């Protein structure tokens, strides 16, 4: 009896250590900025795009996707959004226009992914200002992928770009105009193009030095359907510069509303607001 | 997974190695304690050394601590390190932990357990990439700090009681764990009690304490 008691601490320590080794890796967090994650929770943009391309859209077909933004810390709402989006017929994917996280932590991005991976369709994201706080930009690249990227689906080229100028202290390089111009100038066989970013150019968090070249590039872009943003937590569709370029802003998850966007022709589109 | 356990194994080994060699030092049990070292220790002298992994305070963190109120309260000061490839930049964390352990169970002559410890921690992270330059943000643009974290702790400890030094100082060796969360994780949970679970916001820390 005495012997058994004496032995137990060592035994329980051993079993405790084994339990941690087998299941507790994720618990052993080195810092909230620690962005280590299992392989299936990293480089999600690449994985989601690969999933999207497995369901190609035939040339000439109308494209339909869900547009939303600012999932940041609205986990309760995320469950309902996923349930609602899963009821939408004929959609190819969902776009989250930035601010996936609230505090720029990889763990938050993974919590959101935990919800959005339950969607029947893949989703893509663009970086928001909240995803850029602290070491968030590094976490975003680890969990999702590049800050600027583009892809073609069906007849449409999607250009996703970091416009969170304030997070770079307005250094004059965000959004990266050389990259944007290069992307806009080559449709790569697509019929039309769409630009998606978090901070809209008419916002005070957009670098004022880059505002004119950015809006001008959009004005001159061939078959630009619209420019899409998040950040404002308030949906709108308009032409703030009166130059023929449509700007579409999404609601946040907390507004419990998203858009079903239909695109066809050279640059025709229709937006349906869905409450959930 | 193996890679993640390595730091803990390494730190345990690093801490155990010197104390094990010291244990084999020739000691004459009949030798009387030197009267000079029986003097009360100065208040500022730490009572134990600490080596920890994870717990949000670093891949490895090391420091020293004080014990008072009959061994029921510990204050530990730690300096932690996270390499760039795990967090995007090299981070240095300065942390303070306060722990209250009301019960000590003596299992045998050699083994003691403090089954319950509760407390709180505070940490400051140096080396974060985008953490507010002068004029970058308007006042209260972000309501939280990216560098200062604090949160509740709860855990336990197992102590191996080693014979004290000839001068009477304890040489006990303890291993501990603590589960914690930070202010921002807690805020996330409290505003999303359906969408998040407690398990998702918990962080585990493992460590060794050596009295000296």
TrEMBL record, chain A:
Domain Calcineurin-like phosphoesterase: 63-233
Coiled-coil annotated spans: none
Superkingdom of origin organism: Bacteria
This protein's UniProt keywords: Signal
SUPFAM superfamilies: Metallo-dependent phosphatases
Signal peptide annotation: 1-21
Pfam family membership, one: Metallophos
Keyword Signal found: yes
InterPro entries cross-referenced by the UniProt entry: Calcineurin-like_PHP (IPR004843), Metallo-depent_PP-like (IPR029052), STPP_CPPED1 (IPR051918)
Name of the protein described by the UniProt record: Metallophosphoesterase
Native species: Hymenobacter cellulosivorans
TrEMBL record, chain B:
Keywords of the record: Signal
Region spans: Disordered: 23-43
Superkingdom of this protein's organism: Bacteria
Biased composition (Low complexity): 23-40
Signal listed as a keyword: yes
Annotated signal sequence range: 1-23
Protein name stated in the entry: DUF3575 domain-containing protein
Organism expressing this protein natively: Hymenobacter cellulosivorans
